[in-house]
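Protocol step 6 of 9: fold each sequence in the batch and record its structure tokens directly after the sequence line. For illustration, a two-sequence batch is reproduced in full.

Sequence one:
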Amino acid sequence: MSETAAGPCWPLALRTVAMPADTNPAGDIFGGWIMFQMDLAAGLAATARAHGRVATVAASNFQFLQPVHVGDAVSCHTELLRTGRTSLTYGVEVWAQRHRHGAPVKVTAAEFTMVAVDGNGRPRPLPPA
């Protein structure tokens, strides 16, 4: 996964703010909430590339590097890593800007594999790039 001292290198796919309702018992943002945001980001990128509906078939290589706190601006950045006949694999990085100021901090990274599907939910070939 890529980054610079200034922050993320991959295109922004999704940005939101971590809210109190998304915390775990320790008071940090629940990891499942972060995974949900990452899946949305990968889905948005894959839908655009596939020109239609996609389904998540795998999520792997999760790295939870630092906690996310209430009030952090959370940005999900995606990069297309691989394509198959029907599938797309995206790297997804999550960066947090602490209380919406200061330098962004990389907090999570993973890979998501999406499959282009037709109206019946069956895999369909990807259109040409």
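Sequence two, same batch, same settings:
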Amino acid sequence: MKVLSLCDYTGVWGGQYEDEYEVIYVDLQHGQDIRLFRHTNDVHGIICQPPCDHFAVSGARWWEKKGDNALREGLALVDACLRIVLAHRPQWWVLENPVGRLRHFIGPSCHTFNPSDYGDPYTKRTCLWGEFTMPQKNPVEPTEGSKMHLIAPGPDRKNLRSATPLGFAQAFRMANP
């Protein structure tokens, strides 16, 4: 059985399934384009984390300057994720993206969470779409606040900001075996 982990550069979320499943990582930064992903058999679950560059409200001040081509590029990756879900019909699937304008294109999310809901002491309101069991919360005080805004500019900033909170990834794995 397989779990597809799409746009999971860090492997944090998909890595939670490696004990029981063959996890197939597909990420542009690793040279694999999800838009070209071919059907495979025995897919049990799919994790989709398309880049939020053109969707997250934290970058809203740049949307107009980026223009419609950037938005189309972002939507093409979301569309590819959803096509893969449709083609494989897994037992469960989830698409994750921070709060922003993606809801205008695929509808309102079914759930939102903050990392502090699952034991990671910071905030980053995140939306989830899909067919899955929402994990049980283990809330902690967000003592680190919105630490994503404090990450210094640099070549790793995007990947540091996009890494799935470990507490959430572990709780999701427990709820969606």
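Proceed to step 7 once all outputs are recorded. Observation for sequence two: The longest strand covers residues 92-98.
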